[in-house]
Automatic annotation (TrEMBL):
Organism encoding this protein: Albula goreensis
Protein name: Polysaccharide biosynthesis domain-containing protein
Pfam families for this protein: PBDC1
One term under GO cellular component: cytoplasm
Span of domain Polysaccharide biosynthesis: 35-159
Transmembrane segments: none
Length: 171
């Protein structure tokens, strides 16, 4: 994943102000473009950390939340046929999909911190975060899909590619 200056470009004071601003209730803001940029930077930072994690650690050993088992079992009960290897954005964003996702997501309110915060989710799990391969989803959707990808072996491609490139770099 390409790294940019991100939050570091804000400096200590700017990053502190951004962290404070992001902790305030949504009602405190209108449509503030600066706030949208801060949310996007936070989502990008989360995506970058996660991709580095699945590139460095065998994904089957990762635990993303204290409720991974529950999230996975409810997700696979409610979305048993969802292709998580290559996600169809319509199955996350269409009006019909939102009606199906809403009860799933809402049952984790108060259980999973920031369950409905915006997060970046890769469409094709074998590829990096790029503009073409990324969709905006809620954090609980991210956890559900990525826990399933880790447990079902789909994220192994990222881990194995990084391991292979490290071996080739040592040769």
């Amino acid at each position: 994943m390409a790294t940019g200056n991100g939050l570091a470009s804000l400096g200590v004071e700017g990053a502190s102000a951004a962290a404070h601003a992001l902790s305030l209730p949504a009602e405190e803001y209108g449509n503030n473009p600066q706030l949208e940029v801060m949310w996007a930077m936070k989502a990008y930072q989360h995506a970058e950390i996660y991709f580095n994690l699945i590139s460095s650690v065998d994904p089957k050993f990762l635990k993303l939340t204290k409720l991974d088992d529950k999230i996975y079992s409810v997700f696979r009960k409610d979305f048993e046929d969802l292709n998580i290897q290559i996600l169809d954005p319509e199955l996350l964003k269409s009006a019909e999909a939102k009606e199906k996702w809403r009860p799933f997501c809402n049952q984790f309110e108060g259980l999973v911190e920031d369950f409905n915060y915006g997060t970046l989710l890769r469409l094709d799990c074998q590829k990096d975060y790029t503009e073409e391969n990324t969709i905006f989803a809620t954090r609980i959707q991210f956890f559900a899909v990525e826990i399933a990808r880790n447990r079902e072996g789909y994220n192994n491609a990222v881990y194995n590619a990084k391991k292979q490139s490290s071996k080739e770099g040592q040769s």
